[in-house]
Amino acid sequence: MMQNYFKNWRDYWEQLREVLLNPEVDKALLEQSLQEARMKMPVPVLWLLGKTQAGKTSIIRAMTGSETAEIGNGFQPCTRQSLFYDFPADSPVVRFLDTRGLGEVDYDPADDIAYCESKAHLLIAVMKVADIKQQALFDVLYTVRSRHPEWPVLLVQTGLHECYPPGGAHILPWLYDQEPLPDTVPTDLKRALQEQRRIAANLPGFASVRWVAVDLTLPEDGYSPSEYGLEALWEGIEALSSLGLENLLTRDERVQDLFAHTAHQHIVGYSTTAAGLGGLPVVDLMAVSVVQAKLLHSLAALYGQHWDKRMITEFIGLLGAGVAGGYLTRWIGRTVTKVIPVLGQTLGTLWSASASGAATYALGKAAAYFFDRHRHHLSVDAKTIRRIYADELERGAAVLKDRLRGRSE
User: Fold this and answer.
1) 117-121, 154-158, 404-408, range with greatest mean pLDDT
2) What is the rounded CA–CA span in Å between residue 78 and residue 356?
3) What average pLDDT does this structure show over 311-317?
4) What CATH number is associated with residue 205?
5) Contact between residue 47 and residue 116 where contact means Cβ atoms under 8 Å apart
6) Rounded to a whole number, what is the distance in angstroms from the first to the last CA of the chain?
7) Do the Cβ atoms of 86 and 38 come closer than 8 Å?
8) How far from 137 is each of 141, 161, 195, CA to CA, in Å?
9) Domain count for the chain
10) Burial of 219 (0-12, 13-18, 19+ CB in 10 A)
11) 132 and 54 in one domain?
């Protein structure tokens, strides 16, 4: 059985070559496969709750690095009054759920709250610190926590600079996790922060309630840094959940520019989809290779490269399908060996999914290097591109591990 398993993965490289050079795809069949993958790997949902202009969209922009996070440009209705924002849009790794601004005239949030409760993985309540009228938000939080006392809540206080004295600036380093707040915090700001936190202390439930103070501004607003408190926001999300979103959404040390940052989002999205396909009862390697082909076409377009037969042949030749297949087969063998003799259907599915996602991640990173070199009219070194593939095979497995493991338990 194991011999056939490894043979299938070696054969997959020939399938990928065929799909790239002869991209005749049954679109209906592909869409069905992608839908099955998404069902297998559900997208984590962050429920953003707050009044209009509280700063919810600014949080989405800061977390994703996406300048398109605007109402009407990426947001889609999921109920009559609520919107969701998938990022990336074509192969999302996270979904933000945005309820209409609380406290608006003639708006009863009951139906939206019921819907959001059924979908959310983490509740993020957003409130502008200068707005003292937050009763509508606290009423909803009280209702939700009464029904779900085990739900943690992240409360984000925004717009700190609106309470600064004239000519005021951000306090560096960020220190709003200290209790009590130090005297270096301006008096008006400290009073507003403490009053909101005092009211929230009465929420029912036993799960954690964590506070984060942020100031997410535009560069032209004149406050530096413009994403003040973003690191603390990430820490709050990771502390209250096991979603691993920062690893999925943010750059690693080697991502140096906007092209690589955007490419990273595409690569993770397609890798997650491929992992879902790899986790199906019968591994559809042709479907996995089609997803990877779509990723490569997407990256070529991003880098402004003409992804024709000549460039495809060059890329496959440099990467060396046989060499890359050998890396993948050895990685699968080493990984599976660790769980023998307890390898069962569940673990087999897990490692199949992990291999699909990790191979897609490594292929995308190698392609990003290839396209970036071409964009700058530089030569591409076969040894380097193969080393990138081998290194990123391990990294891709680490990025996907927690989500895959969570679905297998």
Assistant:
1) 154-158
2) 31
3) 86
4) 3.40.50.300
5) yes
6) 24
7) no
8) 6, 22, 14
9) 2
10) exposed
11) yes
> What's the confidence (pLDDT) of residue 324?
62
* 11 and 103 together in one domain: no
Residue with tokens 């043979």: 7
Domain that holds residue 336: 2-40+251-408
Q: Are residues 129 and 222 in the same domain?
A: yes
Which among 252-256, 369-373, 375-379 has the top mean pLDDT?
Answer: 369-373
- Distance of alpha carbon 390 from alpha carbon 384, whole angstroms: 10
Q: Does 257 lie in the same domain as 297?
A: yes
Helix H or strand E segment including 335: helix 321-337
Q: CA-to-CA distance for 93 and 247, rounded, in angstroms? A: 11
The owner of tokens 């490894």 is 6
For residue 322, name the pLDDT band (cuts at 50, 70, 90). low
Task: Note the pLDDT tens digit of each residue in 240-271.
Answer: 875 555 555 554 443 345 566 667 767 877 77
DSSP run (H or E) holding 215: strand 215-216
Q: Could you say which of 185, 218, 242 is where a domain stops?
A: 242
Q: How far is CA 298 from CA 118, 243, 264, 305, in A?
A: 33, 26, 12, 10
**What is the pLDDT, as a whole number, of residue 362?**
87
Last residue of a domain, one of 221, 242, 263: 242
Are residues 279 and 216 located together in one domain of the fold? no
Annotate 112-145 with DSSP letters as a single string.
Answer: HHHHHHHH-SEEEEEEETT----HHHHHHHHHHH
